[in-house]
């Protein structure tokens, strides 16, 4: 992994990181906003200690542990990555309430355009702020965006000590199982007698 000086990381502040998206994904994972390491590398969840990539593998979403630099391979698994707020900061607490609200509006429009089966927001606090849903808890939400169902997952940041990689993987695996089920009302298989 490339080492960055503090000045190089600071230079990445406010930088935008391209989404990893396509139409009709099974799951579009949504982070809070890019950190400085992510902005410096251009790879989502790039900070050492962030547990997104290990948890993605432990939960069965990917067949092997992927590196942030391999993020483009997620598309082949029907997965993608975006953020609630696009601009990079050192910490999520640098974002304003208005940035979260505007991020929620932009995210909803993106989801309506891309039509993933599931939007998975990693971080209940970010979800609550972006969608003005103060009562939201982990797991599937009542809210849909168009035909897209919404699930809130734990934030994989190393700062989130309430969740271990194992307990996070269990929650991610619940979403994986739901994402593998056909949508309600859709029949799979050959309908002929």
TrEMBL record:
Keyword Amino-acid biosynthesis recorded: no
Keyword DNA repair: yes
Keywords: DNA damage, DNA repair, Glycosidase, Hydrolase
InterPro entries: MUG/TDG, Uracil-DNA_glycosylase-like, Uracil-DNA_glycosylase-like_sf
Top class in the EC scheme: hydrolase
Sequence ranges assigned to domain Uracil-DNA glycosylase-like in this UniProt record: 18-179
SMART domains referenced in this protein's UniProt entry, alphabetically: UDG (SM00986), UreE_C (SM00987)
GO molecular function: hydrolase activity, acting on glycosyl bonds
Coiled coil location: none
Pfam families associated with the record: UDG (PF03167)
UniProt EC number: 3.2.2.28
Protein name: G/U mismatch-specific DNA glycosylase
Taxon lineage: Bacteria, Bacillati, Actinomycetota, Actinomycetes, Kitasatosporales
